[in-house]
Amino acid sequence: MSYGVAVAGWVALGAAALGLWALSRRAPDRVAPPSALLRRLATGPVARVALAVVWMWAGWHLFAR
Question: How many domains does the chain have?
Fold first, then answer.
């Protein structure tokens, strides 16, 4: 994977997070903020481990290479 693809991946991830945050500010009754989404995703121990593994995989493939 080239450096440009890695940077593009991080930019896309950041843009998605900012977009979700902006939508949650404009329509709080329809779109949950990112913190609420992560809180709901990490409700149980298995989900927390899965979330950590996905985060580590994304970090390794999008940043470390």
Answer: 1
Tens-digit pLDDT profile for residues 4-62: 887 888 899 899 989 888 888 888 888 777 778 778 878 888 888 988 898 898 888 76
| Domain range enclosing 12 | 3-64
Please list, in sequence order, all residues whose beta carbon lies within 8 angstroms of the beta carbon of residue 51, skipping any fewer than 6 positions away: 38, 41, 42
Q: What are the structure tokens assigned to 60, written together?
A: 């390794």
Task: State in Å, rounded, how far the first CA of the chain is from the last one.
Answer: 7
Please state, in angstroms and as integers, the Cα–Cα distance from residue 10 to each residue in 16, 22, 26, 33, 49, following that order. Answer: 10, 18, 24, 20, 22
Strand, helix or coil at 5? helix
